């Protein structure tokens, strides 16, 4: 079973040379720490930064440098800062090649719910609405089950939706899965030490298993 860093490390392998990548709040921000050597990517933070680097070491933080989740970050040579209007102009104009988001639920049709739990106070949907509406390639980093052990990969989302039929791939502590165009979660890889049966038991939505399922390479 993977921890949050393990999920981020596996997702980092999906990043291709030359990509512009938006990292959402939560587990996705950890991806910045695991970009493979020799891969030249530009990480975007929706609060107005291109060229985000890994998290700073303790004692080297700059309180003026933060990501969209208000975590202190580093910048790389050539980084640029700009306002939110320009940042979302980039997103809406589809200049971002890959968006990595957290989620509370994903449906077997690729719907995502990641902004509101009914009855809890929130400021609003924020930039997630623009990201899921504009991105052609969305990977979700999430826990496979909630604290009660209930699946978060569902036939249909029960929470308010952020986007419809937009998620392409999911990486959890248990597995890597594709969302098929016709619907369903296709199992691609299983986490080290995790069996296919465990993934079946943790997935409420339609799970498609074809052939031998390899363990992830982390």
Total of domains = 1
* Strand segment tally: 13
Shape: globular
Report the helical percentage: 10-25%
Mean pLDDT: 94
Spatial order of the strands in the main sheet? Answer: 4-3-2-1-5-8-10-11-12-13
Contiguous helical run count? 4
**Distance N terminus to C terminus?**
12 Å
What name goes with the CATH superfamily? Glutaconate Coenzyme A-transferase
**Can you write the helix and strand succession as a string?**
HEEEEHEEEHEEEEEHE
Strand and helix layout:
Layout: H1 4-12, E1 20-23, E2 42-45, E3 49-52, E4 75-81, H2 84-92, E5 98-102, E6 105-107, E7 112-113, H3 128-134, E8 138-141, E9 153-154, E10 169-171, E11 175-179, E12 185-190, H4 196-202, E13 207-208
Descriptive notes:
- By secondary structure, the protein is an alpha/beta fold.
- It has a single domain (4-173), classed as Glutaconate Coenzyme A-transferase (3-Layer(aba) Sandwich), CATH 3.40.1080.10.
- Helix content is 15%, strand content 23%.
- The chain has four helices and 13 strands.
- Strands 4-3-2-1-5-8-10-11-12-13 form a ten-stranded mixed beta sheet, sandwiched between helices. A three-stranded mixed beta sheet has the order 7-6-9, with no helix packed on it.
- The mean pLDDT is 94.
